[in-house]
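Hi, here's the filled form for the chain we discussed.

Project: internal
Contact: R.S.
Residues: 272
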Amino acid sequence: MKRLKRIGGILAIVIMLASCTSQKNLVYFQNDRLKGKTPNEQIYVYGEGQENVSPEYKLQEHDMLYIQISSSMDAETSQLFSGGNSNNPYAQTSETAIYLNSYEVNEDGFVTLPVIGDLKVVGFTVDQIKEQIRVKAEEYSKGVVVVCRLVTFRISVTGEVNRPGIYTFYQPSVNIFDALITAGDLTYDGNRSKVRIVRKNAHEDVVHTLDIRRTAVLRDPNYYLRPGDIVYVEPNKNTKTLTSINRPLTTITSSLSLIASVVAIILSVRNL
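And the returned structure, exactly as it came back:
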């Protein structure tokens, strides 16, 4: 009888440990003890010089811009702006075609456009460049329509994710969760406390580490990614070494629960 009680107690403790370990490692946006109006509300007040906005990416050397300029009032001028190519922004539908019909930012920070000539783009956002092109193009024609897209916002996601690969984004800003969700989220064995961002700068390579379990990640300066970043998710050592405990709850925990239930039934029968 005492032996069965010990077994039941041990199984109950193991189940609790399995549940606690998995929850701690898997839950995102855990409490950072920030002040809030209610216990379930977290508030971070940004200081002077800080902004709670998504920063739009500013172009750098060797970025590729897809630019199409057309005039609704002058078809001949539209052909002139396109360098003789089709000016229909929907004519090139494949990613490869769009890339081949794009303009590369040279080492001096310029792109060279038909008619308009050299245009400084480094340090400007896509929307700012679009407006500059429109103003210059309207010196030659009225009713100008400009399509401007960054086609090199590619992020590589690898490691403990469900769909590793290279992903292209067509939005002005991309954060770490955009990349991870696109890659199918982390696997069970992914270490959410050590998500690496490998970034190549002009004169150095930098590796940043984010703990995406914490709400504080939202205000980390590396929360927003840059084109060319590599996101690497480390394996969680605990889930790799303690396989028998930290497997998904639908397998190991359910089996332990069944055994505990059987022991409880036996104890109840013996006490009758």
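Let me know if anything looks off before we file it.
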